[in-house]
Design goal:
Elements: H1 10-28, E1 36-37, H2 38-41, E2 42-44, E3 50-59, H3 72-84, E4 101-109, E5 118-125, E6 136-143, E7 149-156, E8 162-164, E9 171-173, E10 178-187, E11 200-205, H4 210-224, E12 229-231, E13 236-240, H5 245-256, E14 259-260, E15 268-271, E16 278-280, E17 285-286, E18 289-291, E19 297-307, E20 318-328, E21 335-337, H6 343-352, H7 357-370, E22 373-374, E23 376-379
Parallel strand pairs: 15-23
Antiparallel strand pairs: 1-14, 2-11, 3-4, 3-6, 4-5, 5-10, 6-7, 7-10, 8-9, 11-13, 12-13, 15-16, 17-22, 18-21, 19-20
Helix pairs in contact: 1-6
Function: Assembles around the rod to form the L-ring and probably protects the motor/basal body from shearing forces during rotation.
Organism: Undibacterium arcticum
Family: Belongs to the FlgI family.
Amino acid sequence: MTNGSAGKSVLGKTAAVLLCAAGLLGAFAPAAGHAERLKDLASIQGVRENQLLGYGLVVGLDGSGDQTTQTPFTVQSVVSMLQNSGVNLPPGTSLQLKNVAAVMVTSSLPAFAQPGQTLDITVSSMGNAKSLRGGTLLMTPLKGADNQIYAMAQGNVLVGGVGAAASGSKVQVNHLSVGRISAGATVERAVASQLGQGNTINLELHDTDFSTASRVVDAVNQRFGADTAAALDGRVIRVRSPEGSDRRVAFLGALESLNVNPAQLAAKVIMNARTGSVVMNQSVTLDACAVAHGNLSVVINTQPVISQPGPLSNGQTVVAQRSQIEINKEPGQVLLLKSGVSLADVVKALNSIGATPQDLLAILQAMKAAGALRAELEII
């Protein structure tokens, strides 16, 4: 393993940046008791999007459509469309279509959407079309999970990622088999909502946490009165709301803007073994341990630093902790970590001597197995 620029791994380009960012966050982030809006911590049960899906045809392509010999479903779709339009083809007719592509159309129906509203849609080729650029999506019904039609889509497909360079001599071409149509679908059916029924609503925390749920209940009861909120479990909180749509909406607006101090998140380390990216939160700590891995050696010591005031200065003696990191690459040495050392310092030290993502992964797994890594290790 070398320290040269040619020997730097992907870890040196990604983990170092992420760890420096983590250090800046630790220096400038607000305290652990920083309040967040309730709308950022929880959502209202029943207020959600619904996915829509449809199958359609894109026509008008400039010879970049599906090859009909390999995509028979495109020909079947065209024949069915012509029959529905009153055009009957003679038996045995072989269609050679080059300007048609079979596509899947996807979108999301937002909460409280009403008939007549428009949605943005994504059009994706499902055959072997080379490009959807310049094509037009024919009228396509969009269905929900219950197989009911909730929207109708149609329009000109816009494919991004195609453009000439500044000099005009080069053309940059990206993914051409997916396009979008802004306001390309019209809502035809509304989804029934249970929000206006009864005198209670349920809040669902984004992350299950009993401490945060308890703090939310305390904050709501303090703001709106005792017994307004009650926690059902670590995620769901039942809240009594006033009757009447106008009063209910005003109550929910005030509820979403309520400030809550969330509990500290569980310690977690996430590592991408392919890119070497390492992300950790501020709750990660280490216990004393010893890890031997090849010729990697990092010794981290924490020494007290005593600052003594001058004579007659009426000052106080201050004792601080200063971390010193020694980096060696001599074979046979051991990685020594003392209790309380930050994992970010360890990763930065390993990165500085050119450790690969595989090396870092092996060390973190060993530390976790030994019980020295006080965090959940997630590898993606």
